[in-house]
Amino acid sequence: MDLTPEQLEAACLEARRTSEFMPVSATIRAAHEKMRSTGEMNYLGPPMLHYTETLTPEQREEALKFGDALRKQLALPPRTTRPIRK
């Protein structure tokens, strides 16, 4: 039985939470089985953010200009160009 990275992480967290000592692989697998049998299998990770409003290209450009000015004021390195996600 191979675990996905998400399952392994969740099992490790559970094993560390319930173990008296540093958990070994058998303890991690037992934690996975316990979680599976009790229906606690939440391997989806943190919830994604869903924005209810989207920026227009003009608003995005205005925000980038504001950010650039703030970076100069705070003496931060210039931002790298990022593509617009749709």
Describe this structure in words.
- With 86 residues, the chain is mainly α.
- The chain has two domains: 5-38, no CATH class; 54-86, no CATH class.
- Helices cover 53% and strands 0% of the residues.
- It is built from three helices and no strands.
- The protein has helices spanning 5-18, 25-38, 57-74.
- Helix 1 crosses helix 2 (25-38).
- The chain is elongated.
- It starts with a helix and ends in a 12-residue tail after the last helix.
- The relative contact order is 0.11.
- The model has no long low-confidence stretch (mean pLDDT 80).
Helices and strands in order:
Layout: H1 5-18, H2 25-38, H3 57-74
Helix pairs in contact: 1-2
The residue-averaged pLDDT reads: 80
Low-confidence stretches: none
Give a quick account of the main beta sheet: strands, pairing sense, barrel closure: none
Estimate nothing, just give the exact number of structural domains.
2
First CA to last CA: what distance? 38 Å
Please provide the ordered H/E string of secondary-structure elements. HHH
* Percent of residues in β-strands: under 5%
Topology, number of strands: 0
Which radius of gyration do the C-alpha atoms yield?
22 Å
Shape descriptor reads elongated
What would the keywords be for this entry?
86 residues, mainly alpha, 2 domains, 3 helices, 53% helix
Summarize this entry quickly.
53% of the residues lie in helices and 0% in strands.
